[in-house]
Amino acid sequence: QVQLVESGGGLVQAGGSLRLSCAASGLTFSGPIMGWFRQTPGKERAVVAAISWSGGTTYYADSAKGRFSISRDNAKNMVYLQMNSLKPEDTAVYYCAARPYAGIGRVPSEPSQYGYWGQGTQVTVSS
């Protein structure tokens, strides 16, 4: 069965950096696309970034562009989210998600398009 385990969250001051990691196992379907999403109380879960199997195609939410970087190491079954220049509004629970291959150059960005989720890791950015 698919298992996604996030780590690396914590408390950081505004302007600081964090690197989230997602350890994936049981991804037996072809070309899994991986994504990072976040959610705050009272708001819907929203995409932060997503990456294709090869790493050649990525998607970033506008809020993440220029500050966050998604990467993956398929040999280690790991996905990472490097977050720099963090802001208080980045405070959220961050989730790792996976889904099968979606087609050439396609990296879905809607939570409903992902079928496998981790438990989440809390990121808190203090001002």
Description:
Strands 2, 4, 5, 6, 9, 10 and 11 form a seven-stranded mixed sheet that branches. Strands 1-3-8-7 form a four-stranded antiparallel sheet, with no helix packed on it. The chain contains no helices and eleven strands. The chain has 127 residues and is mostly beta strands. Helices cover 0% and strands 48% of the residues. The chain has strands at 3-7, 10-13, 18-25, 33-39, 46-51, 58-60, 68-73, 78-83, 92-99, 116-117, 121-126. The protein starts with a strand and ends with a strand. Strand 7 and strand 8 (78-83) form a beta hairpin. The model has no long low-confidence stretch (mean pLDDT 96).
Helix-strand layout with pairing:
Elements: E1 3-7, E2 10-13, E3 18-25, E4 33-39, E5 46-51, E6 58-60, E7 68-73, E8 78-83, E9 92-99, E10 116-117, E11 121-126
Parallel strand pairs: 2-11
Antiparallel strand pairs: 1-3, 3-8, 4-5, 4-9, 5-6, 7-8, 9-10, 9-11
Low-confidence stretches: none
Q: Choose one word for the global shape.
A: globular
Radius of gyration: 14 Å
* SS elements, strand count: 11
User: What class, by secondary structure content?
Assistant: mainly beta
Number of helices: 0
Helices and strands, in N-to-C order?
EEEEEEEEEEE
What does the largest sheet look like?
7 strands, mixed
The separation of the N and C termini measures 40 Å
